[in-house]
Amino acid sequence: MSETDGDHDRKNSKGVFSTLVANGDWLYLKGEHKKAIENYSSALTLKPGDRTCFVGRSKCYLKMGQAGDALEDAEASLKEDTTFFEGLYQKAEALYHMGEFEFALVFYHRGQKLRPQVQEFRLGIQKAQEAIESSVGRPSSVKLKIKGDLSFLQKDEERAQPITAIQHLTKEKQQQPQKIPKKKMTTKQLLGEFYSDKKYLENLLKDENLVKGKTKGGEPLRDVIHGCLTYLDTCMELWSQEKPIGSQEHQSKLKQKKCRKAHRNVTCDPTQFLLRSLDDIDAELTAGNAEESLKKAEDVMKMVQGWSEKEVPNKKEVLGSLHSCMGNALIEIGDMEQALYHHQKDLELAKQCKDPDKMSRALDNIGRVYAQLGQFSQAIEFWEKKIPLVRGGLEKTWLFHEIGWCFLELGRPEEARGYGVRSVAAADDIGDEKWKINAHVLVAQAELKLGNVESCVSHFEKALSCARLQEDEDAMKAIQKALDEAKQQ
């Protein structure tokens, strides 16, 4: 296999080591988590210790509310390589859902240090810190145990970045340090987003059991925490002298001016604002933060609805995109009824705009919702409407395969075979070996149900040949097993 073919394979089948794993990934996306777990478990019997399978199964357990099992699989994925960032993220997510916010924060930080470009870790740190701040009341309520890696307490470059808005002390306030309330307020204003970190570190110091521990490097945790607090105090002193001292009124006016300027930027250039907003909404969803993605989409929609067609000439298209984003977020949350409503609104707006690409998107999503609900006839209805709008070969391959799978679930193998054959042809056109395997397996399953054993064997053999071309031993074993069973009939 050439280097180019290898790159293509990695892009199109990342994390897929066998047909069973591919089915697991596919079922996970459809929300059929129990079936997905069965596939991942079967794949693990063929290749014990495969970290991709463990991560996939961990995700399913998490969706089903089984955080303990999710954590166990996440830890198994890290057994051979503790720097496996997908496993680290999954472990952090499992701990977060178990309410172990402090330890989730540890692994979000560790993952970010290894892969700073992965946004999921940054968002994980943010939500874990917010959860800690919400749950921590008086210092006595903080009950941490000595376990896990607390290396995130060490100073790093992130914490050395200057704060943009600094509230300075007046000379009178500097001469009256006994006024504790004002001093506290000033500290918060000076440290800004780091103020919560300071409070968190101070709370940690009050846990006698925790501070007796040591880092992996052997440094006492008490010293590490004290070092971080000293560092923050030094930064605060430097920042307080960085700019001339101003009055409270002057600071207030500056803030108002900045707010007005920000508002003008939005209203003067709504296109750029909307592009940034849609990127943010998509990033939140990609990071697995569906609730935040939905909230941002709702906020932007309220704003857009108040704008005129003159301000936003493509207002209907923008609203359609927002409905689509909200629908996708609701699918992840599990509210299928509301998800269907928003995707149907997207379809209505796309028809009004006569935009085939947007119509295709909406039909795709509506079919996906129905498929996840197990309403396969409705899924087929909308996906078949999408067929004339499909342009790319890969999308055709996927769509024909999905429709065929729905027919198979409905006990209509003849129609399933027809769409499976079309999926094979589309996969051949674009030379996608992964989808050739999936399409041939679909046809083989349909032929088996129709009693056409010879044809079934033929398609399994073709799928096996494709797996050999990719040098995928796990897929070869799985298909060989199905092929042997078919031959026995």
Question: In brief, what are we looking at here?
Answer:
Helices cover 73% and strands 0% of the residues. The chain has helices spanning 3-12, 19-29, 33-46, 51-63, 67-77, 85-97, 101-114, 119-135, 171-174, 180-191, 195-205, 208-211, 221-240, 248-268, 270-286, 290-305, 315-333, 336-353, 356-372, 376-386, 393-409, 413-430, 433-450, 453-469, 473-488.
Overall description:
The structure is a single chain. This protein is an all-alpha fold and 489 residues long. It has 4 domains: 15-135, Serine Threonine Protein Phosphatase 5, Tetratricopeptide repeat (Alpha Horseshoe); 193-244; 268-386, Tetratricopeptide repeat domain (Serine Threonine Protein Phosphatase 5, Tetratricopeptide repeat), CATH 1.25.40; 390-489, Serine Threonine Protein Phosphatase 5, Tetratricopeptide repeat. It is 73% helix and 0% strand. It has helices at residues 3-12, 19-29, 33-46, 51-63, 67-77, 85-97, 101-114, 119-135, 171-174, 180-191, 195-205, 208-211, 221-240, 248-268, 270-286, 290-305, 315-333, 336-353, 356-372, 376-386, 393-409, 413-430, 433-450, 453-469, 473-488. Helix 20 (376-386) packs antiparallel against helix 21 (393-409). The longest helix has 21 residues, at 248-268.
